[in-house]
Amino acid sequence: MLSALSLGATLYMPATRPDLWQVVNGEKYPELRSLVICLEDAVSEHEVEAAKVNLKHLLQRMLKNYVKISSLMRIMMP
Known about the structure:
This protein has helices at residues 20-24, 48-64; strands at residues 11-14, 35-38. It is α+β, with helices and mostly antiparallel strands.
């Protein structure tokens, strides 16, 4: 089990980024241990729907490729 002390900094990134998959699967930042994909503050109102689609595609790809990560999702309610 990973110690909270060895977790390191959390990367906070908007769901609009085109490189979500590369970050999640460790290609871009192999030492990354904690990531927040944001649909709120980091995404402007006119980009929310595109961000949701991007996140949906990421989650589908993770499922298809059996990516095993611990995750927590907080769903924003209108």
